[in-house]
Amino acid sequence: MTDHIRQQALTLWEYHHLNHSLTKADAILVLCSHDLRVAQRGAELFLEGWAPLLIFSGGLGVITRHMWSEPEAELFARIALDMGVPAQQILIENQSSNTGENVLFTKQLLEQHQLEIERFIVVQKPYMERRSFATFKKVWPGKDVLVTSPQDSFDTYLSQYTNPALTPDDVISIMVGDLQRIQLYPEKGFQIPQPIPTEVWAAYEALIQAGYDRHLATS
């Protein structure tokens, strides 16, 4: 990776972060994916006492359906159990295949359990904080939500990535695709709008020119 590419990718990385300061919540909602570090972050927050309920949401998505045979949420929940989270404090939603479904199906799950949750801490990959927030506020308006992620720097995240099936270049391509979705999805009704600064869009276009376009939405 050249210094120029790294700088453009870092611009996107920083934009995707919301840098929310955490406060105690009613539930921690972990949006599952290919990144097992997210499961660890969710479990750590529970064990630190940020909320009394830990929810894992995720079936098999675009990436993980080619990697695993079991739902993401089941795998993530086992990680939390191994870290000491009591089973009775965990809820699992294992049918969703995208971020919007993560939120919608979790809403339905909580309704089935007759649980009224007003304040959430959402845990997601570092480069999906902003899109997760925008999606949550569209699908479930009126709830308080803070978003966090594994507390790694950009370089540390890429060098210590927990899934060897994805290279640093793959991660950058995913970040590019997520920025495109932030721009496109409000018109489709999937997310609330998010401002995209000129320098962030310029970095996005530079990365596409450099070939980081493998995870762009096709429609």
Automatic annotation (TrEMBL):
<dbReference type="InterPro" id="IPR003848">
    <property type="entry name" value="DUF218"/>
</dbReference>
<dbReference type="Pfam" id="PF02698">
    <property type="entry name" value="DUF218"/>
</dbReference>
<dbReference type="GO" id="GO:0005886">
    <property type="term" value="C:plasma membrane"/>
</dbReference>
<dbReference type="InterPro" id="IPR051599">
    <property type="entry name" value="Cell_Envelope_Assoc"/>
</dbReference>
<protein>
    <submittedName>
        <fullName>YdcF family protein</fullName>
    </submittedName>
</protein>
<feature type="domain" description="DUF218">
    <location>
        <begin position="26"/>
        <end position="144"/>
    </location>
</feature>
<dbReference type="InterPro" id="IPR014729">
    <property type="entry name" value="Rossmann-like_a/b/a_fold"/>
</dbReference>
